Amino acid sequence: MKRNPLVAAGTLTVLTLLFACKKDEPAPTTPPDANTIIGKYLNLNLDALPEYAQVNYPVHYNPGVLAMDNAPSINRVTNTGAVLGRVLFYDKNLSRNNTVACASCHSQAKGFTDDLTLSEGFDGGKTGAHSMRLANANFYAGERMFWDKRAQDIEDQSTQPIKDHTEMGFDDSAGGIDSLIRKLQALEYYPILFEQAFGSPEISEEKMQRALAQFIRSMVSTDSKFDQGYAQVYNPNAPGGGIGAPFQNFTQQENQGKMLFTAPPNAGGAGCAGCHQPPTFALAANSLNNGLDIGETTIFKAPSLKNIAVTGSYMHDGRFATLEQVVEHYNSGIQPSPTLDNRLRTPNGQPLRLNLNDAQKQAIVAFLSTLTDNSLLAEERFSDPFK
Question: Within this chain, do residues 61 and 186 fall inside the same structural domain, yes or no?
């Protein structure tokens, strides 16, 4: 049977038109690679991430010290997880109106705390407690976090400020954490970072918690003047690893302050190390009330003393502006309460009075200044990654 030439011609015409249309359409483009997208927003190279997982601990961070790391086995620090945590930590998109980030209240240059007594939230309100320093948070063996220990661990702690109605604003009235997740899903760099860290671009609160916790746990302070001096004299066979020996890089006043800090009151010291444990200076897990107020029943958790001299304020409510005031509290101001720590009591149960003289108090302050870790305060891998 012969083909109708008109039909054949029509078919050819349609095919020709279709082909012509195809030629006029823009050629499909190769999707930009991950580093191109990331590079639009962040000073990061996904193929050469900063090192967070491997820490070169000095000799005095012995196996006993390292065993106090509170990271759960399912959330050890990884480079990809910590990088994601770093981006989340500095991203103001995590606040309701894009005005504050975690880093707004935990400033690297200030020892990951705030010099304000109470920090300012996303809409100008004041936080309920003073911002805590974050260095060596991984060495608090008591695990529970925040001043009042309301968080189960660092993971649980990490997103509570985001959901707080004053701090970052994603409370129930703003749609809660689900509203934030939808917001982050619309930012093209997050699916890439979540994929790299957890193998899937899906964003969830649990993954956010794990990433933020990894970044916080990577903030390990090991390069203060104290650390440098201790490493020189460390002796695993000596009492306290040799911490009582004079540090060659310390002044006479700093060495006196070290002795007062580490020795118990019955040995001529102030006994500070009984609760604030060298070399991490994280709080002992069994620490109780520190006697701020008469009759206090809340048992507060304190952060590591590393970088404590960088800026005030001090205590959960920021009531002390200077380290001198802090030392004076422990010298003469401890108040009785049913939960007062036994290390702050006399044998008959009364609040301890150290009766330090001015030179001794100044020596303790000088020693606390040796806990400043300038490397941590300036290290790029802990800095703002945004362009």
Answer: yes
